[in-house]
Amino acid sequence: MAELPELEQLYKTYRTELYRYLCFLCRDPHRAEDLLSDTFLRAIQCAPAWQGGAVKAWLFGLARNIWREDLRRRRQALPFDDALGLTAGDTLTEDAAARQTLDRVRALLEAKGPPASQVVRLRAAGYAYAEIAAKLKITESSARVLEHRTRRWLQTTLQKEGLWHDEGL
Question: Exposed/middle/buried for 154, CB within 10 Å: 0-12, 13-18, 19+?
């Protein structure tokens, strides 16, 4: 049986990637933090059964399973992501409507162009404002303002078009 690397080293190596992945899945940074903790707790519990192989794939598989369990516990559908969209509607109609909205959001973000569209997409992917600012060579406050204004613009536009009926982006 192969030996699993030390948990502390695994945490340091994969926490950021796992957090971003979980943010992408659940669209809630606070929930993603909780799921990240649960992932590493599960890794501790499952370590004796680990049979070797790619540790990263194993951790991401654990994270995905924990996210799915969390969804089942909450008995809720995946929310429509304000920037990129991901839906698991119960009906074909809901799924088609969400896809239509997603396509429109993508088109609107494309029309908006950089850096506003980049900021929204990076935030949706779980990046912190500081990381976005460094990546796009803008200030952190500019990243915050761009995201806020772009999300508000998206919401207003989608509401006018009858594609957005929720409480907001």
Answer: buried
pTM of this structure: 0.46
d(CA 22, CA 14): 12
Dump the DSSP string for 57-105.
Answer: HHHHHHHHHHHHHHHHHHT-PPPPPSSS-----SSHHHHHHHHHHHHHH
pLDDT (tens digit per residue) in 32-46? 999 999 998 888 887
Q: What is the pLDDT of residues 50-82, one digit of tens each?
A: 666 778 888 888 899 898 888 877 754 444 444
To the nearest 10°, report the CA torsion of 21, 25, 27, 31: -80
Encoded amino acid at 103, one letter: D
Of the candidates 131, 120, 123, which has an alpha carbon nearest to the alpha carbon of residue 29?
123
